[in-house]
């Protein structure tokens, strides 16, 4: 048989495992997949099966070696001639081996593959890499188990939006697969009937998921109605009990309003959603922001804004680095306002030394919690769960970040659930509830004896002889002053506890930013901090290419006059980072940088950082950033900020650290292209060139933060 391309065969895997020698594996009973003819070497008996050697690494890539020698597994592969010495040794000039990287397991063969199966196998097989790859990729996105709906409205909304996003991703993936099938048909690689069948199955699967989404929406609407009814009943209960507390002067109307449940807010009153304004396409947000911010005199390139939107979507902590006046806090504030959110700028003081400076502390003498502006901002965000809330720690490194922020940083590593911030012990709350309950029971009995109604105030009780005597007798009070002192103490404690619970769950609608400026008055960020954040560096706006930015703005087709009211889930929701898969190209590249270049330099870049980077890449794909550009952003934001070393010192294996830096530079240039040194833009290769040049001219110290 003569073929212009590689010889494709189907065969049964077999071999043997040997203790004293390397394991050997073969693909036996070779058959042509399309015409069903058995394949034999010309000089061999055609009744005997022909076999081809399989390299052990090919087996390890797809199957357990112990299973590979059972003879129960079938595979498809391309063949190539064995090396000349092997053919000479086997006295077979046609001896073939399995071509590296082509071995694939089979689970069913299409009907047009006329393969004669030898042995007890009777089932038809189809290629796993053809069918499973399609179905697994779609189902992995569509059929992902959703977390159970909780009894809060915000969770119900998040669940609906997540299902909608998964369905949109599935449709996008299906469109890609359909387009790929059409290309393959045009090239003659697949039969039209087979492709149409798979496309039809895929469309049926999407139709089923559409029905499933409709059912989920209906269920969510029913649960919303139930939740609103619970809100109403809870409000009635708190209003009834709270009214008595207000009448007694133990709390004010403002205290009562603070704890009353808030009904879900109508989003239409805030502005248009992402779906309404931009068709649900997050990639259209950056151009719209560029045009919108330009109206206020804020000029940012589209690359900057796409990167910022991508960082928002990851829900990671972002450190904005740059000189004063470079537009760090202005960007955070302007974007928050543009999307219909709220921004709180919290100045960091140089004397902050612990978590109490960030979150506040409990005063046992006053029996109240002293909150900080940061904690009050978290509370304000929790009271408006539908509104994006940006909190920026300004001059974050005036104090040592690892001292006051480390506990909070570790707390936010929880991605699968909302972390809980514990403020003080619940014992104080229980003591107050008991003391307050006793007082209410006493005053209720005093009113009953004096025949006073529910609206009676403390003044009316004390001025009524019967009620006053009963209250003193029941409570052991000797005079009116004791009652007032007790009442005042209860009032202060109760008001404080109503406004400050013992713990607070981190609101889903909060993004945390930190603005830093590196000079002699500030502290450097520790490796623990850098390992968990993205560093977004700002250059002097005077160096920006304003003509290019204005040209980009003139090409924007989005209407900057639209008033957006994005929900937190429109921007991005917190989720676990993607798992590490060494077969993923980006993961493999980053792992190679860590192993071959960063570790010899003493720069840590571990599993957390790689998985966080993969999360950024997934978000960048949706926001319209080119994959190589997104990978370049990761190097600039996650790797280069960690470089602070003496290039004159050797590495552990004796190499010069400058040489290792140069090898890192070459690896980046090979993957990401030559250096870019455009003002305000650039790439990681250009940044590394600048870093090495500065090190050569300043005592051989290479430091990302050096100017």
Automatic annotation (TrEMBL):
Keywords: Coiled coil. SUPFAM superfamilies: P-loop containing nucleoside triphosphate hydrolases (SSF52540). Residues 318-416 form the ATPase dynein-related AAA domain. Transmembrane segments: none annotated. One of its GO terms (molecular function) is ATP hydrolysis activity. It holds the Pfam family AAA_5. Residues 164-237 form a coiled coil. This is Dynein-related subfamily AAA family protein. It comes from Hoeflea halophila.
């Amino acid at each position: 048989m003569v073929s212009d391309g590689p010889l494709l065969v189907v065969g049964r895997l077999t071999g043997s495992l040997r203790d004293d020698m390397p394991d050997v594996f073969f693909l036996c009973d070779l058959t042509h997949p399309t015409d069903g003819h058995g394949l034999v070497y010309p000089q061999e008996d055609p009744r005997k099966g022909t076999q081809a050697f399989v390299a052990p690494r090919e087996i390890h890539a797809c199957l357990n070696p112990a299973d590979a020698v059972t003879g129960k597994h079938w595979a498809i592969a391309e063949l190539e001639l064995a090396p000349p010495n092997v053919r000479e040794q086997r006295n077979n000039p046609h001896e073939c081996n399995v071509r590296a990287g082509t071995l694939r397991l089979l689970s069913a063969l299409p009907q047009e593959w006329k393969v004669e199966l030898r042995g007890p196998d009777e089932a038809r097989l189809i290629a796993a890499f053809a069918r499973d790859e399609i179905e697994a990729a779609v189902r992995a996105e569509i059929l992902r188990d959703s977390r159970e709906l909780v009894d809060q409205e915000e969770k119900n909304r998040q669940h609906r939006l997540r299902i909608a996003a998964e369905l949109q991703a599935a449709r996008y993936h299906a469109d890609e697969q359909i387009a790929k099938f059409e290309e393959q048909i045009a090239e003659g690689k697949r039969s039209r009937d087979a492709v149409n069948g798979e496309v039809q199955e895929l469309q049926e699967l999407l139709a089923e998921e559409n029905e499933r989404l409709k059912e989920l929406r209906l269920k969510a609407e029913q649960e919303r109605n139930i939740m609103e009814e619970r809100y109403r009943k809870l409000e009635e209960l708190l209003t009834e009990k709270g009214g008595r507390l207000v009448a007694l002067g133990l709390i004010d109307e403002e205290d009562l309003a603070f704890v009353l449940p808030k009904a879900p807010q109508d989003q239409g009153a805030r502005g248009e959603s992402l779906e309404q304004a931009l068709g649900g396409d997050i990639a259209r947000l950056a151009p719209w922001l560029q045009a919108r911010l330009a109206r206020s005199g804020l000029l940012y390139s589209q690359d900057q804004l796409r990167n910022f939107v991508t960082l928002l979507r990851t829900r990671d902590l972002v450190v904005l680095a740059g000189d004063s006046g470079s537009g760090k806090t202005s960007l955070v504030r302007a974007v928050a306002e543009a999307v219909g959110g709220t921004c709180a700028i919290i100045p960091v003081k140089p004397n902050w030394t612990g978590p109490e400076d960030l979150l506040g502390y409990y005063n046992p003498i006053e029996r109240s919690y002293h909150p900080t502006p940061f904690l009050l901002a978290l509370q304000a965000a929790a009271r408006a769960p539908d509104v994006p809330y940006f909190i920026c720690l300004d001059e974050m490194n005036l104090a040592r970040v690892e001292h006051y922020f480390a506990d909070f940083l570790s707390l936010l590593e929880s991605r699968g659930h909302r972390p809980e911030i514990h403020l003080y012990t619940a014992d104080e709350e229980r003591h107050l509830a008991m003391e307050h309950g006793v007082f209410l029971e006493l005053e209720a009995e005093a009113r009953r004896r004096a025949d006073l109604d529910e609206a009676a105030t403390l003044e009316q009780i004390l001025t009524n002889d019967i009620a006053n005597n009963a209250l003193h007798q029941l409570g052991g009070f000797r005079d009116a002053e004791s009652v007032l002192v007790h009442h005042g103490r209860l009032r202060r404690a109760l008001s404080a506890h109503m406004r400050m619970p013992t713990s607070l769950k981190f609101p889903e609608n909060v993004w945390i930013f930190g603005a830093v400026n590196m000079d002699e008055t500030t502290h450097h960020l520790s490796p623990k901090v850098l390992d968990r954040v993205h560093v977004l560096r700002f250059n002097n706006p005077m160096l920006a290419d304003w003509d290019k930015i204005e040209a980009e703005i003139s090409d924007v087709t989005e209407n900057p006059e639209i008033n957006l009211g994005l929900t937190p889930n429109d921007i991005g929701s917190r989720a676990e980072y993607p798992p590490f898969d060494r077969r993923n190209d980006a993961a493999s590249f980053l792992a190679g940088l860590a192993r071959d270049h960063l570790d010899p330099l003493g720069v840590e870049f571990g599993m957390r950082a790689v998985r966080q980077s993969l999360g950024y890449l997934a978000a960048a794909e949706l926001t319209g950033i080119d994959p190589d550009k997104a990978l370049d952003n990761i190097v600039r934001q996650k790797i280069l900020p960690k470089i602070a070393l003496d290039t004159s010192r050797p590495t552990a294996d004796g190499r010069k650290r400058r040489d290792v830096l140069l090898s890192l530079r070459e690896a980046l240039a090979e993957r990401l292209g030559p250096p870019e040194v455009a003002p305000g833009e650039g790439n990681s290769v250009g940044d590394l060139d600048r870093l090495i040049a500065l090190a050569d001219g300043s005592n051989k110290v290479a430091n990302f933060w050096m100017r």
